[in-house]
Amino acid sequence: MQTTVTLNTGAPMPRFGLGVFRAGEDTSEAVQTALKIGYRHLDTAAIYKNEEGVGKGLRASGLARQDVFITTKLWNSDHGYDSALRAFDASLKRLGMDYVDLYLIHWPVPTKRKESWRALERLFEDGRAKAIGVSNYMIPHLQEVFAHGNVKPACNQFELHPFIGRTREPVCRFCEDNDIAVMSYSPLTKGKRLGDPRLAAIAAEVGKTPAQVLIRWVIDKGRCTIPKSSNPQRIAENAAVFDFSLTPAQLAALDDLEDGGVVAWDPMGEP
Length: 271
Description:
With 271 residues, the protein is α/β, with parallel strands linked by helices. Helix content is 41%, strand content 14%. It is built from ten helices and ten strands. Strands 3-4-5-6-7-8-9-10 form an eight-stranded parallel sheet. A two-stranded antiparallel sheet has the order 1-2. α6 links the parallel β8 and β9. The longest helix has 15 residues, at 81-95. The chain starts with a strand and ends in a 16-residue tail after the last helix.
């Protein structure tokens, strides 16, 4: 099932994974279900308050730690050099691991993010974060990292789906031109746009669900995605997207769904 993208560190990252935002008490079970199906990338964050469940689910799966790619994130209140290092240690403890595959700055909060990036560089140099990156960074935020940092982000994770595809295309292109992997969160629009009749028509053409079409749109654009679910049936449905592809005409029709419909907080105006 899995396809991978090679990060600028040289390491492979599964292009498709499980997001566990708001999975709560179901996190461990969701992780075990996903890993049994074939998922090999788990995306969590300190603010999700379920890193423990991710670690528990992985250990219960029987899979070796090195066989699963783990991403977690630094929360806004932990910015700063020393604070970021302490927050990372706390995340590792909750996960029950001695390293993560990818550590991200969760949001480009205006204060102390330069110091936070310096801390992430330290974690990368020490090998406790095998790769480091950012989330919700737009082009000016990335340019700031280039100007003040020594390590280029390996990945940038942000909201991406057809309803904001053209809006986000400049930052996607900027990342790809600079060898930064693009990872889409909320590819399913938090369920808010699954009933769009234009999306439903394309789903009918390919014999898939609207959710599967949205996931495939990201993959066919050459990007990564981490759809969230704690429902076993939907976890399986979301993974069943590697037996078809969208035609150029279908991709263009999905691009035409663009209407600026952001479903998360929009970082475009963040200084």
